[in-house]
């Protein structure tokens, strides 16, 4: 069934919002003061992001492809798997969805944002940073992490077995994200998604949160550009080696 562009955009909007609710919501649960999950640990965060990708792909994969990530959309367009005339609408829907999802996280954790005095903990619930404060390390990790994500996701979703059983493929994609956060998430988070970092960073800058500190705009270009570069390489690898 072919859906209208409006329906596809709605799927991207809500799918990206769900990603933020599960993903950054899990960070807020771990990092913010006096939550039920305070200091629950990195596996809690990895699970949140894994489910945050798995569920939208299950829900909307058959509608829009469930890119929920501008890097994925751009990479598929560059490699001829997605029409260029839908790229900008998809990205706008993803950005708006990310903003909505992050705002919901803010609303649901509002008392804990007021109680938390650690600026780094607050920032972590919105966007990524490099643990070693090295911009090159930041770029390399976001690029390679997104490369693995896009390459793995396309292999799952577009190879014959994934097309035959898209639900199983969507579950595997969720586990890829879960695994990536546990294995490559130490240096930067990771973001792996320009919308997941840019829109929450904007909200961090404008929302009235005590003790929030700086939004670190001097490095904000890295989790936007690096995932796009990595995604294009990952999509190219899929097309060259495995696309029918």
UniProtKB/TrEMBL annotation:
Claim: Transport is one of the keywords in the record: yes
InterPro entries hit by this protein: Aquaporin-like, MIP, MIP/Aquaporin, MIP_CS
Primary residence: membrane
Pfam families named in the record: MIP
TM spans (from-to): 13-30, 42-68, 88-109, 143-161, 167-186, 220-243
Lineage: superkingdom: Bacteria
Membrane topology: Multi-pass membrane protein
Compartments reported by the entry: Membrane
Keywords: Membrane, Transmembrane, Transmembrane helix, Transport
GO CC annotations on file: plasma membrane
GO molecular function: glycerol channel activity
Entry-linked PROSITE patterns: MIP
Keyword Transport found: yes
Family membership: Belongs to the MIP/aquaporin (TC 1.A.8) family.
PANTHER family linked to this entry: AQUAPORIN OR AQUAGLYCEROPORIN RELATED, AQUAPORIN-9
Protein's UniProt name: Aquaporin
